UniProtKB/TrEMBL annotation:
<dbReference type="GO" id="GO:0005737">
    <property type="term" value="C:cytoplasm"/>
</dbReference>
<keyword id="KW-0540">Nuclease</keyword>
<feature type="site" description="Interaction with target DNA">
    <location>
        <position position="79"/>
    </location>
</feature>
<comment type="similarity">
    <text>Belongs to the endonuclease V family.</text>
</comment>
<dbReference type="GO" id="GO:0000287">
    <property type="term" value="F:magnesium ion binding"/>
</dbReference>
<dbReference type="GO" id="GO:0043737">
    <property type="term" value="F:deoxyribonuclease V activity"/>
</dbReference>
<keyword id="KW-0378">Hydrolase</keyword>
<keyword id="KW-0460">Magnesium</keyword>
<dbReference type="InterPro" id="IPR007581">
    <property type="entry name" value="Endonuclease-V"/>
</dbReference>
<comment type="function">
    <text>DNA repair enzyme involved in the repair of deaminated bases. Selectively cleaves double-stranded DNA at the second phosphodiester bond 3' to a deoxyinosine leaving behind the intact lesion on the nicked DNA.</text>
</comment>
<protein>
    <recommendedName>
        <fullName>Endonuclease V</fullName>
        <ecNumber>3.1.21.7</ecNumber>
    </recommendedName>
</protein>
<dbReference type="GO" id="GO:0003727">
    <property type="term" value="F:single-stranded RNA binding"/>
</dbReference>
<feature type="binding site">
    <location>
        <position position="43"/>
    </location>
    <ligand>
        <name>Mg(2+)</name>
    </ligand>
</feature>
<dbReference type="Pfam" id="PF04493">
    <property type="entry name" value="Endonuclease_5"/>
</dbReference>
<keyword id="KW-0479">Metal-binding</keyword>
<keyword id="KW-0963">Cytoplasm</keyword>
<keyword id="KW-0234">DNA repair</keyword>
Length: 233
């Protein structure tokens, strides 16, 4: 698959300007793919100045692995909250371009609209790929919410400046919820439906779990080859 790319920003101000310029391209009406045939999970593991980006494509019904790609590299940008996508995008874009199949949905371990400038990694990848994307965060990055009910499927609104930027979704009975926000070409209702389909047994989507394992494994291999330190947990 072909992914549009952008030059790495030279400063935080330039990175914010890129986010502002790309935000109007977002399609937030969806509705997006309900029960997609192929779903990709993306994740990045770090160790000091090294990283490993991973993309895992799963069958949307069986959740079996269809294809997986890893790309080792180095962060392309400094650590700035709200601008973390710029650290990962070059390696993630390269990994996505190496896929021989095109996923119907990309699930990011992070955020979409639930972001200080309403343009998290899921939004950025959505604009660059043109594909439907959603973000599923482990914790709340921004916004306020009421705890959802304890039953699987319960949810509450995630609010930022009085606007709904996502949902706090319970994927398993009695476990901590996840934070779902749309990125591009998916509406929030469809995003939550798909997240529940991807979490039949565990709190996090199988796409996220598979990409996390693969990125950590790839990083360990890269570190072993370089004789570097252990990866961050």
């Amino acid at each position: 698959m072909k992914v549009c790319s952008i030059a790495a920003p030279a400063s935080a101000e330039e990175a914010e300007a890129i986010q502002d310029a790309l935000r109007p391209r977002l399609d937030l009406t969806g509705p997006g793919p309900r029960d997609p045939a192929l779903v990709a999970g993306v994740d990045v593991a770090y160790a000091d100045d090294l990283l490993a980006a991973a993309v895992v494509v799963l069958d949307g019904t069986s959740l079996d692995v269809v294809e997986q790609v890893t790309v080792p590299g180095r962060p392309a940008f400094g650590y700035v909250p709200g601008l973390l996508a710029f650290r990962e995008l070059p390696s993630l874009v390269e990994a996505l371009e190496r896929l021989t199949v095109t996923p119907d949905l990309i699930v990011c371990d992070g955020y979409g609209l639930a972001h200080p400038r309403r343009f998290g990694l899921a939004c950025h990848l959505g604009v660059l790929t043109g594909l439907p994307t959603i973000g599923v965060g482990k914790t709340a990055f921004v916004g306020s919410f009421e705890p959802p009910g304890r039953e699987r499927g319960s949810w509450s609104e995630l609010l930022l400046d009085g606007q709904v930027v996502g949902r706090v979704l319970r994927t398993q009975d009695g476990v901590k919820p996840v934070f779902v926000s749309v990125g591009h070409r998916v509406d929030l209702e469809t995003a939550c439906h798909d997240v529940l389909a991807l979490t039949p047994r565990h709190r996090l989507p199988e796409t996220t779990r598979a990409a996390d394992r693969l990125s950590r494994s790839a990083l360990k291999a890269a570190l072993a080859a370089s004789g570097g330190p252990r990866p961050r947990q």
